[in-house]
Amino acid sequence: MNKGERTRLEILKQSIIYSSQYGLADITIGTVSKLCDLSRTGVISHFENKEDMQIAILQYAETLFQERVIKPAWREDPLEHLVTLIENWADWTSEMFKEHQVSCPFIKAVVEFQNRPPSKVRSFTIEQQNRLISYLTHRVQRCAEQNKLTTEIESVAIAYELYSLYLGHAITQHTAPIKASDNLFKNSVARLLKQYQV
After folding, report:
1. What predicted TM-score, i.e. pTM, was given to this entire model?
2. pLDDT tens, 184-194?
3. Scanning 86, 88, 122, 148, which has its CA 20 to 30 A from the CA of 137?
């Protein structure tokens, strides 16, 4: 990795922490230059514009998600795989950035951009959410194919319910006056999946 690649990686690392705290929409070339102690020109040399930088941040977040959540979740048993995936997902950003109070960057981004005028960033956030739901649906489908979960309910419907539980957990884990929110989330997932087991 050359100096330019190392600098770009450091920019993305600092930017994902910032956007997981404050949101993607607020991040600017100026913000990043201060975070990384670089000149604005130094930051601009790595990205064409603000939108290009925001998309690069989301792409970096997706790479981290694959490394921290998806790959370690692999199990031969499809139901164990699904449960481990969701457990890894529960607080993946907090595990990475322990010194910061952060939230899921994907949720922050889609909430910020879903009702904005069309843009490259808005399109990317929606595509990213669709990929995430598609992957979760695929994991549920694998369970159904191997008779771990019912085939009477569409896999996408079960995936939607699981994702809805995650959204609730991600939003309330740092704000609601609930202790042991991780355990509550895991127990809720277990109860949901039990309904659909065969």
Report:
1. 0.91
2. 899 999 999 99
3. 122
